Amino acid sequence: MNRSTIVAILTDAHLWVPVAVLIFGTTLLMTLR
Amino acid sequence: MTAVRERSTLSLHKLGVFCGLAAAVWLGSAEAPTKLVNQGFSPFLISMGMVMGAFVARWTLPTLLKGTGFLFHDLYEKPHLIVWALLGGMLWAVANTLTIFAVRDVGLAIAFPLWNTNSLVGLFWGWLLFKELRGAGAKNWAKVLGGAAGIVGGAAILAVATAQHSATPEKAMFGIIAALGAGVLLGTMYIPYRKAYISGMNPLSFVTIFTFGELGTVFTLGLIFYGSAGNLVAELHRARPMLFWPFLGGFCWVIGDLFQNFAAKYIGIGRGIPLSNTNQLWGLAWGALVFSELSGLSLNAKLLILAGSAIMIAGAVAISMASPKESELVNWKLAMNRECDRYKLNHAAVATVVGGDDPHSNDPHPRRWWEIVVMCLAVSVFVWLAIGTRSQSIPMNMTWMFVLIVGTIIPLGVCGTMLWRRTRFS
Fold first, then answer.
1. Residue B190 pLDDT > 70, yes or no?
2. What confidence tens digit (pLDDT) does each residue in B340-388 have?
3. What's the predicted TM-score (pTM) here?
4. Are B216 and B88 in contact (CB under 8 A)?
5. Residue from B275, B276, B279 nearest B287 by CA
6. What are the boundaries of each domain within chain A?
7. DSSP secondary structure, B254-272, as one string
């Protein structure tokens, strides 16, 4: 992947919404176990 | 006669609806093999067995249907989507583990409808991020939102009527939070699905990468929960005599998930996911008819089951009738254009694939020698597990089992043929 594609990925809201939810879910899982 | 002339003209909306319903049948039936596992194994271990079976299936089915040449070419053209495929698999793995905790703490009756809200979460993300239902008009909004709400409501009624209540009320709050969290994660998992499909990726390519995120996360969680790799391997070894069943469940689950992916592609996540969430009806059919799980229920409970099923079916019918109008399709195209502009994809080529007509689908894809190795390995794994499986002494109604197996295979044949004739699995 070239640099512009990587920048496009990292600045895409479609990436950070699932990442934020994944962090939330993993934190929840570790708290509840 | 060429392959192109044989293409069906079925509308993509109808195709997506059939895929959503076929997904429900297979996702629900995937529960059946896991019912053959006797008590004594942790639900997490059973889930891990399903994920391992899914991993095998997610490589063999796409290889069988399209060949690795097609899959690698598809991934090479849109490499950025590998990130989202892995992310989707990770979301699923964490969500599935949360559902296990939720069932442990509050029982299925409360947990299932709570995490079934994932369809509403998916509907929200579809509207917000992919312009689904924008310009849909009040009538279609009412059908989709009402249908999704009906399916969640029906699920709640079915769960209350069928499941046993939890014996650990002090953990109720934790269980409810875990179930709601699972709903949020599962609903968010559909963001990668939809993103991949409006970028022109083939669902079969997507799932081959998705499964690495899924398997990697499940094994990481297993290492954390069991303390060490040695403990995890020892538990898996102890579970060896029953591993065939969750493996088989995982295989069935993948077939359902593939249909779910095609539904997400052709009718969006707002419509496709609620339809596949009617899988609870099929899980219930297996439990009630084959395993006689409802034999001790009161008349009231049985009436509740009928009411819940009817509401779910009504919800599915409402969604299936909400075919997107031109004003909504314009917004779908805007979402597609965003992906093309951002990742420098060919607009015309992506539009053709999104329309179910992948230009590469008619290209010859020569089979490679390693595809035979993949097939042989997959079959060997199942044969090896089947040979070492201990017989389970669980009473089953063989007549109903036969009926339901036939009822599961028919949608596979019908919907698989529709997909092939209309899109060549693109």
1. yes
2. 999 999 999 999 999 888 887 777 778 888 889 999 999 999 999 988 7
3. 0.88
4. no
5. B279
6. 3-32
7. HHHHHHHHHHHHHHHHHHH
Report yes or no: A10 at the B interface, CB cutoff 8 Å: no
290-349 of B, contacting A, C-beta below 8 A: 342-344
Q: What is the CA radius of gyration of chain B?
A: 21
Residue B3 has a pLDDT of 45
Whether B360 and B200 have beta carbons less than 8 Å apart is answered as no
pLDDT of the residue at B328: 93
Question: Using one digit for the tens of pLDDT, what is the confidence trace for B194-215?
Answer: 999 999 999 999 999 999 999 9
Q: Could you identify the residue written with the tokens 């044949």?
A: B413
Q: How far apart are CA B305 and CA B63, in angstroms?
A: 40
Contacts of A29 in chain B (CB under 8 A): 94, 97-98, 101, 178, 181, 221
Cβ atoms of B212 and B118 closer than 8 Å: no
**pLDDT of B307 strictly over 50:** yes
Inter-chain residue contact A22 with B343, CB threshold 8 Å: no
Closest Cβ opposite residue B94 in set A8, A15, A26: A26
Mean pLDDT of chain B: 87
- Whether residue A16 lies within 8 A of chain B, CB to CB, comes out as no
A–B interface: beta-carbon pairs under 8 A: 74
- CB of A17 within 8 Å of a chain B CB? The answer is yes
Question: What is the reported pLDDT for B239?
Answer: 85
Residue B67: helix, strand or coil by DSSP? coil
User: Which residues does B2 contact at the CB level (< 8 Å), separation at least 6?
Assistant: none
Q: How far apart are CA B150 and CA B146, in angstroms?
A: 6
- CA torsion B319→B322→B327→B332, rounded to 10°? 40
- CA torsion, points B126, B129, B130, B132, in degrees to nearest 10? 40
Tell me, yes or no, if A32 comes closer than 8 A to chain B by beta carbon: yes
Q: What is the pLDDT of residue B259?
A: 95
**Nearest residue to B135 via CA among B313, B320, B282, B335:** B335
Contacts of A21 in chain B (CB under 8 A): 91, 184-185, 188
Q: Scan residues 95-114 of B and list those with Cβ closer than 8 Å to A.
A: 95, 97-98, 101
With contacts defined as CB-CB under 8 Å, which chain B residues touch A19?
87
**Are B56 and B248 spatial neighbours (Cβ–Cβ below 8 Å)?**
no
The pLDDT of residue B263 is above 90: yes
What pLDDT is attached to residue B37? 66
User: Is the CB of A32 less than 8 angstroms away from the CB of B129?
Assistant: no
